[in-house]
Amino acid sequence: MLKNSILDQRLGEAEASVVCNVLVTRLGGSYSRLLGIKLAGMESDESFKWFVASVLLGSPVRATSALAAYRMLESHGLLDPRRLAAVDEAVLAESLLDAGVTGYTRRIAGTLRLAVESMVNDYDADINRLHFFAEDANDLIARMRRLGRKVPCRAVNLFLREMRGVWEKAHPGLSGAAVEAARCLGIVDEGVAVGEAEDELRGVWERASRADRTYADFEVALVRLGENYCEMRRCIVCPMGKLCISRTNDVKERLCPDMTSTTGGRDRTPAERTARR
User: Fold this and answer.
1) Are residues 142 and 71 in the same domain?
2) Which of 34, 55, 61, 110 holds its CA 20 to 30 A away from the CA of 103?
3) Phi, psi values for residue 112, rounded to 5°
4) Which of 66, 55, 48 is nearest to 151 (CA)?
5) Count of domains in the chain?
6) 230: Cβ contacts below 8 Å, ≥ 6 apart
7) Are residues 202 and 249 in the same domain?
8) Range(s) of the domain holding residue 225
9) Domain of 108: which CATH number?
10) Which residues of 23-52 are buried (b: 16+ CB within 10 A; e: fewer)?
């Protein structure tokens, strides 16, 4: 990443709260919420639905195609472990193709069906049993990865990211893309370590005015921003571009024009007045 002295600045608490809410509004919240999956109740059926969606979303296809494939499975009544495990792999691949998944269809179909078959055989078709038998967070990840012919890391991380706070042992590491996005927005310091960033981001979110949104919504929005814009340096088309301190030094005035904290209550210097114009 290109260094910029502006990135050494960090937003105040009130400004960070505004940025957090704008971020989730513009980038969207969790995928499970978008799909109408209710994870908070810890019901195995809902957790399994999110697992299927995570495998599709964690595949090398567009998110829109993955979401369409999920809804196709839902419409065919295949969001049940035993039913999905019984589907012929070639038939499943053809269904994914019909839903708009135009690449890697056989590989995705095989990964999904074999993972579900493994879940049926090893955990009696109950994904919550997998969590119950896991010794800790690392063992949980290992068990999920071992399902079938190995569930991709990206899919496991997607799944556990939104299961954080639902499953006790769901503690996936914070994505580097999320940290990069948080740095660019001035929510965390430029030099913060990934481990420290997670605690800081949770604290920022807890202090923000959140309505009915959750930390998962916030984290997923950060990952989207980081992966799709920050890491690819797509600053010109970034939906958060005007609030990114790597592009502008007057983000505080854009957010809170009536606040005088940027100058400590004193009159602005000519240079500051010129910069504002």
Assistant:
1) yes
2) 34
3) -70, -50
4) 55
5) 2
6) 177, 180, 181, 184, 238
7) yes
8) 5-30+174-255
9) 1.10.340.30
10) bbeebebbbbbebebebeeeebebbbbbbb
Q: Tell me the average confidence (pLDDT) per consecutive run of 10 residues in the chain, 277 residues long.
A: 46 85 93 95 96 96 95 96 96 94 92 97 98 98 94 96 94 92 90 85 85 89 94 92 72 49 44 41
Displacement of CA 230 from its chain's centroid (Å): 14
Q: Are residues 98 and 182 in the same domain?
A: no
Q: What is the largest CA-CA distance in the chain?
A: 73
Cα(251)–Cα(235) distance, rounded to whole angstroms? 15
The SS3 assignment for 140 reads: helix
Q: Rounded CA gap, 65 and 53, in Å? A: 11
What pLDDT, on the 0 to 100 scale, is given for residue 14? 84
Tell me: do 158 and 198 sit in the same domain: no
Residue 103, Cα to own-chain centre: how many angstroms? 23
- Please tell me whether residues 125 and 216 are part of one structural domain: no
First to last CA, the chain: 29
Look-up: residue for tokens 């990964």? 111
Neighbours of 251 (CB within 10 A): 22
Examine residue 242 and state whether it is found in any structural domain, yes or no. yes
